[in-house]
Prior knowledge:
By secondary structure, the protein is an alpha+beta fold. It has 20 helices and 15 strands.
Amino acid sequence: MNLKKLMVLTAACSMAMSITACGSNNNAGGNAAATNAPADNAAATDNAGAGSDNAPAAGEIVPEEGASLVIWESKEERQFAEEVAKQFTAKYNVPVKIEEVAPPDQVGKLTQDGPSGLAADVIIIPHDNLGKAASASLLLPNDIFAEQTKAENTEASIVGSSYDGELYGYPRAAETYALFYNKSLVKEAPKSFDDVIAFSKTFTDKAKNRYGIMWEVGNMYFNYPFIATTGGYLFGKDGTDKDDIGLNNEGAIKGLTEFAKLKEVLPIKSGDINPDIKRSLFNSGDVAMDITGPWELAGYKEALGDNLGIAPVPTIDGKTAITFSGIKIFTVNAYTQYPNAAKLYAHFASGKDSQLTLNKLVGSVPTNLEALKDPQITGDEFVSAFAEQAKNSQPMPSIPEMGNVWSPVNAALPAIWDNNTDPKAAMDKAVEQIKDLNNGASAQ
Length: 444
């Protein structure tokens, strides 16, 4: 597939070269006083905050008088949100409340709670959810800070933060996944999945709950290499053609056949693998290798110390593995009562210093160009490893129909893994379900 291939490859390589060279889920805390119409894009006013010692610089927008914000953030990265909120409040005198909502769930929650005024003012979402939210008019464009955002961040992150030619997001981190391995168990990172199988045959012992490798085998996000590496794809025409689906073509089936072979060395049901189980086993040395993303980096470094290694995902059928890449972005709720304050927060929380803070706390990969050149990043071998994998990644499509892909494929993968369903039959069924959903019909 040519999924934004030329543009994304250039952007990913540019990012990699820069690195290596240089509360609860309830709605009670929402701004319920917000009107039931989207906020307008009013020009900046001379309201609250201008009189404080930390007043905004000339030319910056000023928060509305009496503004307060609610921010949705993941449980894993709440520490970052609380630190940034503290800094923002000190500078702009705007109180900020943090509520825990998983990023993949935020657009759905915004769809339900935005019009009623119960949603957060600023949300953090994976970029593949952008099309759904933007096409439903749930987000305000990144207009005031658009040129600054474009100038300060990688091209790939700007692509991921845009939909239908409009910039909506404030990029804060780039994500793909790679192979984590325990150097005390694996002397050299495997180059191929054949190498993974060979090692795992010497290490795996199901009776002792010990495995050579573990990853979320039922999750399409982590298994995209077994679709794309050998020629499969999601949507045609650079990820924009909902009617051209390549999940069951010859290339995809070839890769998924290789996927099924790995059951021999990971002989457990897909439902028995989740992030908590996998994390615990890897930290204890009972899993030697894990395919996951930078959000696990801080914890794994603490657990394994110098024994932690990261390498590109092993080759599949002799071909360099192609992973999914994504951009995590801040976006502003179109129904916010305080659009100035919300845009200012999204800009502040996605700047160089904030991205370096996020990297320090959770091991994220920045999108800010200056942050990428900072010694904190250039001196980090692990961030560089993710940059290497980013050279061979494809961004998730951001069209609204992307939301129709997950459930069917996440049902097909366990069928292949758990029930030995023929990969072609499983993916044919998934594609038909996706087409039905894309066309507005109920999947059969």
